[in-house]
């Protein structure tokens, strides 16, 4: 059973702003059971989140090993791509589905925005360039470093890119954001408990009336991806753990390198809507999308009720 974080004193407004911009206070700690004689780990010590190594209850088991592989898999991917000469794993342009949502619902892009699983910052950088206030979180420090470099080169504020676990979203106050965006991150979480915790935490950190955008693979993972030009030939090998050839951009050309297939989830629009509304959100809209970033996907817009949690 995961340990439950101790309730911490509510920080001052000035401290909340400073911590959100700088990656949050290193003094924030997680609770450990009384059997653990080791100091509780500081936030950021373990990307897997809520366990230390000081008691049998915290010993690494299959679940923790799987989570660590999941988290470090993304850092390994970005680092490998950069070592092979690519400046970026993703396109430098914002996601086409994000631009579609901005065109259809510009009103939801206001106030404080959080980009969940921002990667190299393609969407966050675009929003920052349009004058929006954005906090961007990811588990890969290499991807975040590249995002900060790009922000600095464009004379944009790079302090909002912080290394955080998107499942627990520790350190963010309840009711602190007006819009949360999950553009292709939720479909990389495959355990129901992790997905549920993420959605619940997004609900918590959104203000009443706030919106949640989700772009999630619906079917045929990998089809249409820029990095997988030969989907029909490789579809049978798209199994987590397999190493397959992926296309990357290098200088003025392209090359192929071997990358491990990381866990992924496919979910129909209806199933995804039902999953997320179980946590109190109400569905506003659902649109099928097909982009080189996520292939055949569903983009959904949800709203947190202004008072009282909705029940399905």
Description of the molecule:
The chain has 312 residues and is an alpha/beta fold. It has two domains: 13-59, no CATH class; 76-303, Vaccinia Virus protein VP39 (Rossmann fold, 3-Layer(aba) Sandwich), CATH 3.40.50. Helix content is 29%, strand content 22%. It contains eight helices and nine strands. The protein has helices at 13-22, 62-83, 96-104, 122-129, 141-153, 192-205, 231-234, 269-277, and strands spanning 112-116, 133-138, 161-163, 177-183, 206-217, 243-250, 253-260, 282-291, 295-303. Strands 3-2-1-4-5-9-8 form a seven-stranded mixed β-sheet, with helices on both faces. Strands 6-7 form a two-stranded antiparallel ribbon. Strand 6 and strand 7 form a beta hairpin. The radius of gyration is 19 Å and the shape is globular. The protein starts with 12 loop residues before the first helix and ends in a 9-residue tail after the last strand. The model is unreliable at 1-66 (pLDDT under 50).
Portion in beta strands: 15-25%
Total number of strands? 9
Name of the CATH homologous superfamily of the largest domain = Vaccinia Virus protein VP39
Helix content: 25-40%
Q: What string gives the helices and strands in order?
A: HHHEHEHEEHEHEEHEE
Q: What is the count of DSSP helices, taking H or I runs of 4+ residues?
A: 8
Largest sheet data: 7 strands, mixed
- Detail the poorly predicted runs: 1-66
Rg on CA atoms, Å: 19 Å
């Amino acid at each position: 059973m995961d340990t439950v974080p101790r309730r911490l004193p509510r920080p001052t407004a000035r401290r909340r702003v400073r911590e959100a911009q700088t990656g949050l206070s290193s003094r924030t700690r997680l609770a450990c059971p009384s059997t653990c004689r080791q100091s509780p780990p500081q936030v950021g010590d373990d990307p897997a989140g809520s366990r230390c190594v000081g008691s049998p209850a915290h010993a690494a088991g299959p679940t923790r090993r799987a989570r660590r592989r999941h988290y470090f898999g993304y850092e390994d991917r970005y680092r490998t791509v950069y070592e092979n000469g690519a400046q970026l794993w993703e396109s430098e342009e914002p996601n086409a589905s994000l631009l579609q949502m901005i065109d259809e619902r510009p009103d939801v892009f206001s106030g404080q925005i959080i980009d969940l699983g921002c990667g190299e910052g393609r969407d966050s950088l675009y929003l920052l360039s349009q004058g929006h206030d954005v906090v961007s979180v990811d588990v890969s420090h290499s991807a975040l470093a590249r995002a900060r470099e790009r922000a600095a080169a464009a004379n944009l504020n790079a302090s909002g890119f912080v290394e955080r676990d998107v499942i627990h979203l520790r350190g963010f106050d309840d009711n602190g954001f007006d819009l949360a965006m999950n553009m292709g991150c939720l479909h990389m979480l495959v355990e129901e408990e992790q997905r549920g915790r993420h959605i619940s935490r997004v609900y918590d950190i959104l203000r009443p009336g706030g919106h949640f955008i989700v772009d999630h693979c619906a079917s045929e993972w990998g089809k249409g991806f820029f990095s997988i030009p030969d989907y029909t030939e490789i579809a049978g090998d798209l199994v987590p753990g397999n190493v397959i050839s992926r296309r990357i951009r290098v200088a003025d050309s392209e090359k192929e390198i071997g990358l491990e297939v990381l866990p992924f989830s496919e979910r129909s629009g209806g199933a995804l809507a039902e999953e997320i509304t179980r946590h109190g959100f109400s569905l506003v809209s659902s649109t099928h999308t097909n982009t080189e970033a996520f292939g055949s996907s569903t983009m959904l817009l949800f709203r947190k009720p202004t008072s009282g949690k909705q029940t399905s």
